[in-house]
Amino acid sequence: MNDKKDGTRSYDAPNADALAAFMKIGWAPSPLEGVTQSRASSFAAMRRKVLSKTYPDIRMVIPAGVFKVRSNDTDYRFRPLSAYAYLTGITGIDAVPDSVLVLEPLADGGHEALLFIHPRSPRDSEEFYRNVRHGEFWIGRRMTLEETQTKFGITVRHISTLASFLGVEKKSLIIRGEDALVDSKVEARKKKEAEFVTFLSEMRLLKDEFEIGELQNAVNSTARGFADMIKVFKAATEVPKGERVVEAAFFGRARVEGNELGYDTIAAAGSHACVLHWIRNDGAVVPGDLILIDAGTEMDSLYTADITRTLPINGKFSEAQRKIYMLVYEAQKAGFAALKPGAAFKDINRASQAVLAKGLAEMGVLPVSAEESMKPDVGLHRRWTVHGVSHMLGMDVHDCAQARNEEYSDGVLKAGMVLTVEPGLYIQPDDELFPPEYRGIGVRIEDDVLITESGYRVLSGNIPSHPDEVEVWMANLTR
Q1: 465 phi and psi angles, rounded to 5 deg
Q2: What is the Cα 78 distance to its own chain's centre?
Q3: N or C: which end of the chain has fewer CB within 10 A?
Q4: Residues 286-332: tens digit of each pLDDT
Q5: Three-state SS for 263?
Q6: Is pTM, for the whole model, over 0.70?
Q7: Beta carbons within 8 Å of 49's beta carbon, 6+ residues apart
Q8: What are phi and psi of 60, to 5 degrees?
Q9: Any alpha helices (H) in 258-409, and if so which ranges?
Q10: CA distance 264 to 407
Q11: Under DSSP, is residue 411 helix (H, G, I), strand (E, B) or coil?
């Protein structure tokens, strides 16, 4: 944002002395009533203890991040760094840009958690009505230092004291690249910092009780969002950019029940379903076509769902559509069957891909046998299914991305992991290896799954996926 140090902009009117004096008087006390400790705070405290035991005698600095400019003096809505939210419990509307968590080592072992924030502006300053980024009249009320400490159970200090605090040098680890002030105050230790980021990512591979509950809430909200989208299919067919009607219906649900979208919604009608990350959503919604919708609500806790359903716009699958859909459906069932503690993460992909390869061979489009295609140095079936079948899920839709391969992609499944199972087949409209009736059909089915001690639980099992159930579901919603 192109602004000055006081948060005003170059084109803002000057502040008369008389007005400045007048703005300081006549304000009643307005503390927040009923502030209680957040349920997330106790889980965050346990996570910090793990970090403290792992890195004794080291100062750890985890910034929330800063505003990111969208256009000149307009910022994107602020979302804190996931690691910061994970370790503080501060999420959603309570998250304040520029905040920083410091785990300060203690002489007798352990760490003290210190939270540096930009608190509510007092009425004896000009900030509350002049500062366009932090002023209460511009962006709404923030919590005071005391209110923040009560809610999150962390010792809270004013952000203005952070620079001098970090100026006292200690062996430190930070998440670099999120806050320029923090970066400038802490000496770089690239290898150690990379290891620190990796450890924080791997901590999040196993979800605790709070996280699993929030992921289920996100899935439940997303299910309601899918119902909202189905209800506007008819309206979507009546405008040129009908995909955006569908997208908008889900956005409303995500904002009402959660914090935001977990990621940009894919509302891909017709052959747009063959574009894996189709987020333009500017196409027509045509009866007789399928629409592939990939969407997820991010809750105020920042945990997100990630669900895909491929639906017939007119409520009924054609014979060709159903044939491709059922192949993907069976591939997902095979992926589910591979889920159990101790199984390799890659087993999910192998199981689903084997079913897809077999089905493509039986349709006569695969020039080799399914068994030959499944060899790592062949993989011809991947022409129609170029993405992987699973990824971890949590605060980030592709969670734990900095984890080591041996703990993630080359690792084994453990109880407490939450991941997706999402096979797909995409037949491009110009693919002459398929008969014309199949060209332009793209199908993906994606569900969110918790690995349990005895196997797995599909968190999104309340969203129909079998084609017969889908047709009944849609008919009931559009009566």
Answers
A1: -135, -25
A2: 14
A3: C
A4: 999 999 999 999 999 999 999 999 999 999 999 999 999 999 999 99
A5: coil
A6: yes
A7: none
A8: -115, 130
A9: 319-337, 345-362, 370-373
A10: 28
A11: coil
Return the domain boundaries, the chain. 17-202, 209-477
Tell the CATH topology of 17-202: Creatine Amidinohydrolase; Chain A, domain 1 (3.40.350)
With a cut of 80, say whether residue 202 has pLDDT above it.
yes
Is 423 in a helix, a strand, or coil?
coil
- Nearest Cα neighbor of 103 from 115, 117, 119 is 115
Query: Quick one: fold of 209-477?
Result: Creatine Amidinohydrolase (3.90.230)
| Nearest by Cα to 267 from 289, 288, 238, 298 | 289
Cα 120 from chain centre: 28
Structure token digits, residue 190 = 């690239």
In which residue are the tokens 């009425």 written?
Answer: 123
- CB count in 10 Å sphere of residue 281: 20
| Listed residue (432, 462, 434) closest to 323, CA to CA | 434
Express each pLDDT in 106-155 by its tens digit.
998 899 999 999 999 999 999 999 999 889 999 999 999 999 999 999 99
Mean of all residue pLDDT scores within the chain: 96
Residue with the two structure tokens 């569900």: 447
Residue 74 has a CB neighbour count (10 Å cut-off) of 10
